[in-house]
Amino acid sequence: MSVILTINGQSIEAEAGKSLFEHAERLGIDVPTSCRKQGKCKECMVEVVEGMEALSPIAEPEQHLKGNFRLSCQTFATASEGHVRCHTMRRGQMRIEHQALGLPVSKKAFELDPSVTRDGDRILIDGVEVERSTGPIHGIAMDLGTTTVVLRLIDLETGELIADTSFENPQRFGGSEVMSRIAYDTDHSGRLLMRTLAGYLSHAIEKFPVDPKTIYEMVVVGNSTMRDLFFRQSVYSIGQTPYRSITEIEMADGKRTTTSLVATGRHSLLPIHPKARVYGAPIISGHVGADAAAGMLAVDLAHEERLVAIMDIGTNTELIVGNRHRILAASCPAGPAFEGGAIACGMPALDGAIEAVTIAENGSFQFSVIGSGRPEGICGSGLVDLLSELLRTGRMNEMGRFEDDIHRIPLYHSNRPQDEGDVFLLESDVNELAQAKGANVAGLHVVFSSYGIDFDDLDVFYLAGGFGRNLNVESSKRIGLVPSLTSSKIVQAGNIAIEGATIALLSRAKRQELEEMVGKVQHCRLETHPDFFNFFVEGCQFKPVEPIPCAN
Ligand code: FES
């Protein structure tokens, strides 16, 4: 008898005295580390999805970890038999968009005018010399999401994209959504969330095909919590009503004129040029952060006459509605369900994730899997399709109850008991998805009714983010995740936050436009709207989103 370890989908028999890290190395898995298995860097985390009881007790260096996370260099299989399934926090390249789609702003639409310039061998930031070099000048645009981190490396003299990368945010050990991260950061000293992320970012930057010291500027966007954690600000106030970033509070008190943040490369703990400028784009208000602000820049809202909506569905869904004359924004605490979190077989959109599902005439499930391999779980777009198909075929009702009193719907059965298991959907998963959807729908109703419009008044509905890009729109309409608009009005734009960050990196004028635009946005606070609860309850049902009567 022995313990079988399955790490990132690869299996190996556990050897006594060898850590999970060492087994992962044998399997050729690249585990992030900066301390060579000393238990110091905290980067070698794995998430254990099965078999925690077969592992050694939590060691001292792991005390900071919550849930099923372990430090792989500190963890050993100690049982005489069993099966441990776990994965590292970098399971491979997340699916990223190399270019946002269907946007009015392209590189041709603005002048290349970065803050970092060259004068002979002098490298300047806003005219101030920071280095003497005839080498290249690079910048990084970063979208720091609760779940996913995306980086773009840009040549600041040509505006060309040199490389991009993405990975799961390793801060998941502090919780999967912003409120738990805030609680974690408040309860634990030592800025562990920031330090762990900095380790992962440093590895990612060092893998870029340029000398990191030629990176002179970085533009960071992200929701208010992610951005402020990165800049080592206290995030306590974002977790308490009225949910304000410390920068918002300081601005209201007249202590600053913008909510944007600036640090140096040295302060950021990253291997970029120590005098590089790290610019955190301004947030809008509350949980409507710098990623939403960057999205507005990407869709050119400051010059837009048409009535547009931007919906970035995620752990914290952000909604923006308006045009150059008036803009409303809201954030909806949807939770991680549509990103595969809190779902029994949920997973991010990585290789092995079921991303599309149909139910054939004979009732069998047909699905496609990212990477075309064996299914390991189901990601957000697959979940939306699955719900839609269950609804269409009557196997689930609008309330999310399965037919015939069953509570588990199998999608894929593995015949290899020692390998990855079955993929299935539980009725309790549907409850999680219903609540996530309810929050999104409530947000839509609150913002549209506050604006005094209904969905048909829109000219364009941008579905932003990697999840929005890969959704089946018809499935999303059927279950009521997005309004039932004419499909031609719906633009699956992809990651417009990274697009906006890139624009702000390349153009000082656009960055200024961004700073001015956020000051004009009116923030709708969902929790104070009198009809929020009714909208939420209605939105939890799986049926098309109908317009509601205008409030004014
Ligand atoms: S390798 Fe650094 S803590 Fe495990």
What attributes does this structure have?
552 residues, alpha/beta, 6-stranded mixed beta sheet, 13 helices, binds FE2/S2 (inorganic) cluster
Bound molecules: FE2/S2 (inorganic) cluster
What Rg is obtained from the alpha carbons, in whole angstroms?
A: 23 Å
Distance between the termini: 71 Å
Strand content: 15-25%
**Strand elements, count:** 25
Helix content: 10-25%
Largest sheet: 6 strands, mixed
Shape: globular
Please mark out the parts with pLDDT under 50 across 5 or more consecutive residues, or reply none: none
Output mean pLDDT.
Answer: 91
The helix-and-strand class reads alpha/beta
Strand order of the largest sheet: 11-10-9-12-14-13
Q: How many individual helices?
A: 13
A few lines on this structure:
This protein is 25% helix and 24% strand. It has helices at 20-26, 178-187, 192-206, 224-230, 246-252, 290-298, 380-392, 427-451, 465-470, 473-479, 496-506, 508-518, 532-539, and strands at residues 3-7, 10-13, 45-50, 69-71, 82-88, 116-119, 122-125, 128-132, 138-144, 148-155, 161-168, 215-222, 261-264, 277-280, 308-312, 317-322, 327-332, 353-359, 365-369, 377-378, 408-412, 423-426, 460-464, 490-494, 521-523.
Topology diagram in text:
Elements: E1 3-7, E2 10-13, H1 20-26, E3 45-50, E4 69-71, E5 82-88, E6 116-119, E7 122-125, E8 128-132, E9 138-144, E10 148-155, E11 161-168, H2 178-187, H3 192-206, E12 215-222, H4 224-230, H5 246-252, E13 261-264, E14 277-280, H6 290-298, E15 308-312, E16 317-322, E17 327-332, E18 353-359, E19 365-369, E20 377-378, H7 380-392, E21 408-412, E22 423-426, H8 427-451, E23 460-464, H9 465-470, H10 473-479, E24 490-494, H11 496-506, H12 508-518, E25 521-523, H13 532-539
Parallel strand pairs: 1-5, 9-12, 12-14, 15-23, 17-25, 18-20, 23-24
Antiparallel strand pairs: 1-2, 3-4, 3-5, 6-7, 7-8, 9-10, 10-11, 13-14, 15-16, 16-17, 18-19, 21-22
Helix pairs in contact: 6-11, 6-12, 7-10, 8-13, 11-12
The protein binds FE2/S2 (inorganic) cluster.
